[in-house]
């Protein structure tokens, strides 16, 4: 007996020494089950409270299961009876739980009592495929949403589905982010897509915030041309720009931004329509086809700045009450200036000059540019003079029906100094 005891002690000591060495060489993680959650026994989940029942139904949806079973053991109903609790849990899962509201077509529970517990069979039908569910991207914050939208627009994707944390905005907020993302990606801005936004769950009647602060945002995009054709246009534009950029060495100063301004004006003429009568409102129209409206010129200048590492943005505003687009470029010294490439004198303008010439824009959305306009005075109705018919004093350098200034090689011809006169 004594020998056996000594052998056992020796064995324990040896195991202990090996354990110490092992502990020195490895990291260990201890995982303990959540005491408040439902427990799983094979394909069956056991729940004792309403919250566990609700979690079980949500689990089935998260796993993409079309059928699941919940055993209610030692269950004390919250709503008077078990079936009322089951109906409430299923209703929550498809109306208030974001993934359920987005993916589930219908859910049907069946409840039966078996000896000492209730057995709940849950049947689920989906209106989304598992690939669609797996493609949902989780994001937090406006910047992250905008970046995902930029990626979608760059590939001319038809849909973006986001799981957004702390999101209590509406559909119009998302449409505005799509618009901003469009102008942030000028090489892919080849026609503003139509945008359809759906939020899951929708806001309860009379409420201004979504339950839980998490929602799935579905954005569907319909482009004015076939995405394959748009991709080919983008590739042609990017190829031409890449070749041109090799000949451009500009700095983010006034001289550098002026070089890009002159290059664009030498490449493209102002025109509302292309040769086929369509709106010439893209960088492709300006840099490849040689004619563009104010939107196309602004996108083209934005793209040239991006390729040369200069900070620039597209401004959407009005000129004499009509929709108009131009740029604000930020120089290396931190100063910002307006640039309207449709005009020969549209370079490096300050806020005061823009306001004086009839431009209007949201000044809170964009950086200030130099001298500011004088503060507007309050005018009483009796002081308002009888308006006269305004006479335009500033006409774009080329008429709306101007002929194109260059073909598909317009940009490279200007850069290499071989442009036809």
Automatic annotation (TrEMBL):
InterPro entries: Papain-like_cys_pep_sf (IPR038765), Transglutaminase-like (IPR002931). It holds the Pfam family Transglut_core. Residues 1-23 form the signal peptide. Residues 251-332 form the Transglutaminase-like domain. Residues 395-421 are annotated as: Disordered. This is Transglutaminase domain-containing protein. Keywords: Signal.
